[in-house]
Design brief:
Layout: E1 7-8, E2 32-36, H1 37-44, E3 53-63, E4 78-82, H2 88-103, H3 112-125, E5 128-133, E6 136-146, E7 150-158, H4 167-179, E8 185-191, H5 195-203, E9 207-216
Parallel strand pairs: 1-2, 7-8
Antiparallel strand pairs: 2-9, 3-8, 3-9, 4-5, 5-6, 6-7
Helix pairs in contact: 2-3
């Protein structure tokens, strides 16, 4: 699939370079190639330009049958709850920090108004769980896509000063409880260079699956 904005998503049955000889003309408008690692590698070599940024991910999955809810741990001042549209203004600083740190290639590309509109839409359509510490939102986890049987998780984030305290684990647990009321499977993508996140998801029962890659061009 190729979009008008220069996003290329290869899904290949055969990985022969001759299939992509006509792609060179796309180079000036190419923004990103994303997909499984073998597919992206097969396509990327066909372009005369090199990616400016490459990010590698693992796909991780967890089935409802394999999920074992953790024993609740009492943390003074901490509250885990569902987020809704009325929380948009209060939670947006957390969402903005997540996007700038984890999603946007360059902070200069962050568009506050567009991000806020998208975030409000997610609060209406997706499942988002928030961790409040003494009234302040310090962590969140939510879905960013839902299929018939699977919910994809994204936007897992904890403010820096509250990391490594088990808060993200509790927020994720709350989210998974909600997901498995309706879905049979949860999935997520995690950066390979984020061992703390990988460890968190393993503790919740997630299993590593395929490797994925995103290449960014013409930034």
């Amino acid at each position: 699939m190729v979009t008008a904005r220069g996003l290329f998503i290869p899904v290949l049955a055969e990985r022969e370079q001759t299939l992509f000889s006509n792609l060179k003309k796309m180079s000036p408008s190419l923004y990103s190639i994303m997909g499984t690692l073998p597919d992206v590698q097969a396509v990327a070599v066909c372009f005369p330009i090199h990616p400016e940024v490459t990010v590698d991910y693992f796909l991780m999955t967890l089935s409802r049958d394999d999920y074992r809810a953790p024993c609740p741990v009492y943390t003074p001042g901490l509250e885990i709850h569902e987020a809704s549209l009325k929380d948009a203004n209060r939670l947006f600083p957390l969402q903005a920090a997540y996007e700038i740190e984890e999603v946007i290639i360059s902070p200069d590309h962050f568009h506050k108004k567009a991000s806020f509109i998208t975030f409000k839409r997610a609060l209406q359509r997706e499942l988002i769980t928030v961790a409040d510490m003494e009234g302040r939102a310090v962590a969140k986890a939510g879905t960013n896509a839902q299929g018939f049987n699977t919910a994809q998780i994204g936007g897992v984030y904890t403010v820096e000063e509250k990391r490594n305290k088990g808060i993200a684990f509790l927020a994720m647990s709350g989210l998974l409880e909600r997901i498995f009321k309706e879905k049979e499977m949860a999935s997520l993508f995690v950066k390979k260079n984020n061992p703390a996140a990988i460890s968190l998801y393993r503790k919740l029962g997630f299993t590593l699956r395929e490797s994925y890659r995103i290449c960014y061009y013409n930034l």
